[in-house]
């Protein structure tokens, strides 16, 4: 149904404690032009924000989406609020913050603007000597080398402001989406990472709670320096746990663990998934009689939705999966915004998919490109691709039903094609989600990048809008079992699975 996978880097956050979204824009032009004085940085931010606004007006499907009449006003609001910060910008960090505000106002991971500056441009990040993570009902210290601040302590408030309010003010005002629970799991800890944002006041003193007792600690902000590796490791472990390489293992007798940390269209990833699907197919007899199957999405930021569909087909049977998904998406239409830039992007994507060995995807892209060009020639705003209803039913014999309990580990950053995987896996009653709430998508998908005039930022442009998608815009998945433990390791999730299996047995389920 979907063809996400062309720019997974857009949906990734940089190494979490550097805090800046990064990754090269497709095309590579223009060459970065670094301002040399405060006025230059302010002018660059202003020029880039206005250019981003113009590009989105020209190409974003929301501008002409009849189901979203408020989009134009939202886009204008993003421009105006970013320009207000640009007028106050005096350096690279201020530029990055003003640019980031644009995307935060749009509140859509598939649209907006992001800076491509790094720590060499902005300065060495600082931290207070500890890393914190969100665990559903609050922020907790995951790792600490700061005196008086212990691992596991709950952060109650800072400088007299409740920690949740401070996170909204300092973090979500410039990145992420505060109305989505999954974003708290993946981003709230950034409150204790300093990116030199001149529009943020760093907390000076915080109240911590340990075993029912509170204490107030003054924060000693320091350069990351040699601790940078420690910061990154703690942050990654806190948010994702020990992410496994794609593949299937059996960590406990009868419990099969299928790791899917990426859906990238990289050729090596494609080959790994080909081997994985072949192994699942050959071992399906074992899986039918297994105690449990765990589908591990930790670390997954999206990419191509074809992988999850193929893995589901290997597990539940391709004919059954195809029938379920056809019924699920029976009313869906995909409206491709037929602008010249979007049309050329889809045309290039067809060639890219063919070169990478995805002939079916290449054919789909080619069909879309032709439809977009036809719409463009007629002056239509969209090429409408309707769900095909003339596919022939499978004549293959029905495979034995998979009744094994299936657990899907959901990380907070799960969005885009990762959410598509949940669309598939949850079609089957033997599936149970564990972990955290996923992030949410709007109905605007399939992004491309375009660099802005300074070469220091890129605009993210979605190319299509889903119409009548069962999962609503802003909809996300909530886990049946939330893992609120500090540790998100494989061992911790294995305990959750074993405990739930025991409870199922007790219940006779």
From TrEMBL:
Residues 258-438 form the Tail specific protease domain. Residues 1-27 form the signal peptide. Gene3D superfamilies: 2-enoyl-CoA Hydratase, Chain A, domain 1. It comes from the Bacteria. Keywords: Signal. This is Tail specific protease domain-containing protein.
């Amino acid at each position: 149904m979907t063809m996400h996978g062309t720019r997974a880097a857009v949906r990734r956050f940089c190494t979490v404690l550097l805090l800046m979204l990064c990754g090269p824009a497709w095309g590579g032009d223009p060459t970065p032009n670094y301002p040399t004085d405060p006025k230059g940085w302010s002018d660059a931010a202003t020029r880039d924000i206005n250019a981003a606004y113009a590009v989105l007006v020209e190409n974003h499907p929301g501008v002409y989406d009849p189901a979203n009449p408020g989009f134009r006003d939202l886009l204008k609001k993003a421009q105006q609020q970013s320009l207000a910060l640009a007028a106050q910008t005096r350096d690279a960090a201020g530029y990055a913050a003003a640019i980031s505000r644009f995307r935060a106002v749009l509140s859509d991971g598939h649209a907006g603007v992001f800076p491509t500056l790094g720590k060499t441009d902005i300065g060495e990040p600082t931290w207070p000597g500890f890393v914190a993570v969100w665990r559903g009902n609050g922020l907790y210290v995951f790792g600490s080398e700061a005196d008086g601040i212990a691992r596991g302590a709950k952060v109650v408030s800072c400088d007299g402001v409740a920690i949740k309010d401070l996170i909204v003010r300092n973090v979500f005002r410039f990145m992420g989406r505060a109305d989505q629970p999954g974003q708290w799991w993946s981003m709230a800890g950034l409150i204790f990472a300093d990116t030199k944002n001149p529009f943020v006041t760093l907390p000076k003193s915080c109240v911590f709670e340990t075993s029912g007792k509170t204490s107030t600690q003054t924060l000693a902000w320091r350069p990351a320096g040699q601790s940078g590796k420690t910061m990154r490791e703690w942050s990654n472990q806190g948010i994702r746990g020990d992410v496994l390489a794609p593949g299937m293992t059996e960590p406990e007798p009868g419990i099969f663990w299928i790791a899917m940390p990426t859906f990238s269209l990289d050729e090596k990833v494609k080959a790994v998934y080909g081997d994985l699907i072949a192994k699942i197919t050959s071992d399906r007899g074992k899986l039918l009689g297994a105690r449990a199957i765990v589908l591990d999405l930790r670390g997954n930021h999206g990419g191509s939705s074809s992988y999850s569909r193929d893995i589901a087909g290997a597990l539940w049977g391709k004919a059954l999966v195809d029938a379920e998904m056809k019924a699920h998406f029976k009313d869906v239409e995909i409206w491709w915004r037929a602008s010249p830039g979007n049309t050329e992007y889809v045309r290039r994507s067809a060639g890219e998919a063919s070169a990478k060995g995805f002939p079916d995807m290449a054919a789909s892209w080619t069909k879309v490109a032709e439809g977009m060009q036809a719409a463009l020639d007629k002056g239509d705003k969209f090429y409408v691709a309707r769900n095909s209803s003339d596919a022939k039913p499978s004549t293959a014999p029905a495979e034995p039903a998979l009744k094994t309990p299936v657990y899907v580990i959901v990380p907070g950053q799960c969005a885009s094609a990762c959410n598509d995987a949940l669309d598939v896996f949850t079609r089957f009653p033997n599936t149970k989600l564990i972990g955290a709430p996923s992030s949410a998508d709007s109905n605007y998908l399939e992004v491309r990048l375009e660099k802005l005039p300074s070469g220091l930022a890129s605009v993210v442009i979605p190319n299509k809008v889903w119409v009548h998608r069962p999962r609503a815009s802003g909809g996300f998945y909530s886990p049946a079992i939330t893992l609120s433990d500090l540790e998100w390791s494989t061992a911790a999730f294995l305990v959750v699975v074993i405990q739930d299996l025991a409870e199922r047995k007790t219940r006779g389920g």
